[in-house]
Design a protein that fits this description.
The protein contains 19 helices and 17 strands. The strands form 4 sheets. The protein has a 7-stranded mixed beta sheet, with helices on both faces. It has a 6-stranded parallel beta sheet with strand order 10-13-14-15-16-17. It is an alpha/beta fold and 473 residues long. The chain starts with a strand and ends in a 5-residue tail after the last helix. The structure holds iron/sulfur cluster. Residues 205, 207, 209, 212, 215, 253-254, 281, 303 line the site of iron/sulfur cluster.
Length: 473
């Protein structure tokens, strides 16, 4: 079946599709690669992947595609679901014969209401949907396809679960889909060199952080990986076939979860002379960091979340703040750049812990930071906890504002949603508006004209973001 994989048009600048962990419009315009759609697209011959937000496409741009395909697979998320359903309805109206399926964590957790949300939706593919979609595209009947929920006479049928993919090497590379269908210059992340390419070398995370969406839904808690040799082959292909790429990012939840493999992969990458970066937990020992650094590692994206040990315990982070301090000292010593991510409004947050976390961030001093508002996605431990404790705001209308930026959907007896929301701007200001940080960024800008232009553009967007927030509490 001729298949269209679509990251649907959405809020302007919405980085919420098939590759982003926090689905929202960012402080600085950024887009992750739509990796979760690219993988099944690589399994379906003659398919096409369209990433509408990254390409700046609206509904009028994608509707004419409806008649060119027999099946459309749309990636959806909790914040974008209502909008994605409208896109599905418009596509179905344009081509009533088009079979439309939804994929993503939101439908994996809520298959029944999702498939019933509209007559335009023919099925939802739950959990790891790569082979599910490949089988449907080959024409396998719904009744025989594991992993889908679909309607028969208005009633929802849930087929048996599809087994988790254990042989990751058997999945084809997404690089051919990126080359064929995406414009790599569209993908921009403030702390990565541009253009960059990101892809997965494995799925799943051993940790059980209560707020974290993918390991609790599609990815699971077993880290399933491609072999170091296969990863090195993919990287060598990128070097050869996409020579403009300046950095490769391994988007695995926690690339360092399997240290021997991370070290082995690093050694192979070192032979290629490539600049690379990855997600890591702040528990990687100095020796492993050094091996990775010596073999081309430039940056680590690390989720610190909080500087309060009590909050780290509340969210089951499995991390001690003193480990994180030592880890950061090691990174500074080795010259590894760190982009640190933090969350405001996790269970147990109060004015003291907000201050503690801001002080902690300034003390460990990652090069750049991202601060998010706690978001309780359906399917997570945090979601159930928030439901049981009445932490969801009664007046909240979803997880994002009409502009697509995050809103604080949680609040606590001692901390209002307005206070959580305010903490985010305070955090950014206290972290970035320090003489030492301004000096660091100025120095970085002086190294190249490209970096100067980029940081100036980001600076303008950042100030705009801070001003805009006053309107979106
Ligand atoms: S370590 Fe990171 S990826 Fe793993 S569960 Fe925690 S937040 Fe999620």
């Amino acid at each position: 079946m001729k298949t269209l994989f679509l990251n649907p048009p959405s809020f302007d600048g919405f980085d919420g599709g098939a590759g982003s962990r926090y689905q929202a419009v960012r402080e600085i315009r950024s887009f992750w690669y739509p990796t979760w759609l690219a993988q099944p697209a690589a399994l379906v011959p003659d398919s096409k992947l369209v990433d509408a937000p990254a390409r700046g496409l609206g509904l009028d741009d994608v509707l004419p595609m409806a008649n060119d395909y027999e099946m459309a697979v749309l990636h959806t998320s909790t914040p974008s679901f209502q909008n994605d359903v409208k896109v599905a309805e418009a596509l179905k109206q344009a081509n009533p014969k088009l079979q439309i399926g939804l994929v993503g964590a939101h439908v994996a957790v809520n298959p029944e209401p999702s498939v019933l949300a509209s007559d335009a939706i023919d099925y939802v593919a739950r959990n790891e949907f790569d082979y599910t979609i490949a089988e449907l595209a080959e024409g396998k009947p719904y009744a025989e396809t594991n992993g889908i929920s679909y309607k028969v006479d208005g009633k929802v049928v849930h087929n048996p679960e599809r087994a988790m993919i254990m042989n990751m090497d058997a999945l084809p590379s997404v690089i051919d889909v990126y080359k064929r269908d995406l414009v790599i210059e569209d993908y921009f992340i403030g702390y990565l060199k541009h253009p960059y390419v990101s892809f997965y070398t494995g799925r799943g995370c051993k940790s059980r952080c209560t707020f974290c969406l993918w390991p609790q839904t599609i990815g699971g808690h077993k880290y399933r990986t491609r072999s170091p040799e296969v990863v090195a082959e993919e990287v060598a292909r990128i070097q050869k076939e996409m020579p403009q790429v300046k950095e490769i990012f391994f988007d695995d939840d926690t690339f360092t979860d399997d240290r021997p493999r991370a070290e082995e992969t690093a050694r192979l990458l070192g032979k290629l002379g490539v600049t690379w970066s990855c997600n890591a937990k702040a528990n990687v020992p100095y020796e492993t960091l050094k091996i990775m650094r010596d073999n081309g590692l430039r940056l680590l994206l690390v989720g610190f979340e909080s500087g309060s040990q009590r909050i780290l315990l509340n969210i089951k982070k499995g991390m001690h703040v003193d480990f994180a301090r030592r880890f950061m000292k090691d990174c500074h010593k080795l010259g590894i750049t760190v982009h640190g991510t933090f969350i405001m409004g996790l269970p147990g947050e109060n004015h003291d812990t907000i201050k503690e976390t801001i002080d902690f961030a300034k003390e460990i001093n990652p090069h750049t930071i991202q601060v998010s508002l706690a978001a309780a996605y359906p399917g997570t431990f945090l979601y159930n906890q928030a439901m049981e404790n009445g932490w969801f705001r009664q007046d909240a209308n979803g997880m994002v504002a009409s502009s697509g930026t995050q809103v604080s959907s949680l609040e606590y007896p001692d901390l209002s949603h307005e206070e959580i929301f305010e903490a985010l701007s305070t955090f950014y200001k206290k972290f970035y508006f320090r003489p030492s940080k301004i000096g660091e960024i100025t120095w970085e800008m002086m190294q190249s004209w490209d970096m100067t232009k980029r940081r100036l553009r980001e600076g303008v967007e950042f100030f705009h973001f801070l001003n805009q927030r006053a309107d979106s509490v």
